[in-house]
Amino acid sequence: MADRALFCALHGTMEPHPWYDPATADPYILFHARSHTRRWLAAPDDGRPEAGLWGMNDAGLDPLDEDSRRLWFQVSQQPLARPRRAVPAQQMLDCAGAVADRVGRLDLEAAQLLVPLQELPPGPHEGAYGDLVSALPWFAELPARARTAVTVSLDSGTGTEAADAAPAMVERLREIRQQVFTDITAAPGRDAARGLTPGIPDFPAVGAEGHRATFEGYLAEWSCEATGWLMALICEAAIEQGVRVPVVATIRLSPRPGG
Q: 131-135: which pairs have CB atoms within 8 A and are 24 or more residues apart?
């Protein structure tokens, strides 16, 4: 997998629409179209930061009777503009969720995103957090019954960077004034990715506790948009603590009761 690749996976159960024909519009075509419509897709060979957020690589629909993954998407992240914007997790999950809606009814259990943090330049993060804050009004008017208990893990593969940063990350997450992810607690013995198959391609998941940061809390709603926003927030908290390795963010429904 290329150094700047973002890889998104949606897990759960899928019931395809009876009218859906992958020969006409497969996940690649649908993700490409959605990205283009949202002006997040860069033209091939256009390496300018302002050209878009990513270029298309690949996408697919998994067999419905195998593993837990149902849809996957891979893009190549554009060179980052200065000042740096937030990790484009919310945009990736927006497109992924839109594709899922076109394909069928997805009962989402978990979402994953591989993010190449090693590609990020050093420097201030004000613009990145500004992106996240500007999205808060979208989640402001949700009913209390939409609150959903979730577990979120950030895995740094063979390194211990995520686990080392976890204590400072949880404090930072609690400091930020927002109501999208609340009642945040550290959960060092939990792994949101446990049992999700197949694994992220080319990512050396170790499975040991000392290689991830895990938190529990309540998400304002269980949607691809909200999970994408939370993935970006978790990544930015890790970046602020100096994490500069590829990481996989996993957000999963928690067995805890809802809010």
A: 131/85, 131/86, 131/232, 132/86, 132/178, 132/229, 132/232, 132/233, 132/236, 133/178, 135/90, 135/229
Token duo for residue 215: 């938190």
pLDDT value for 259: 47
Give which of 78, 69, 62 is closest to 5, Cα–Cα: 78
Per residue in 102-148, pLDDT (tens digit) is 999 999 999 999 999 987 766 556 678 888 999 999 998 899 999 99
Burial bucket for residue 49 (CB in 10 Å: 0-12, 13-18, 19+): middle
Burial of 30 (0-12, 13-18, 19+ CB in 10 A): buried
| Across 173-198, average pLDDT | 94
25-45 tens-digit pLDDT = 999 999 999 999 999 999 887
CA–CA distances in Å: residue 173 to residues 85, 112, 182, 189, 212: 18, 19, 9, 19, 16
Task: Output the six-digit token pair for 106.
Answer: 């997805």
Q: Are strands 104-116 and 5-16 parallel, antiparallel or unpaired?
A: antiparallel
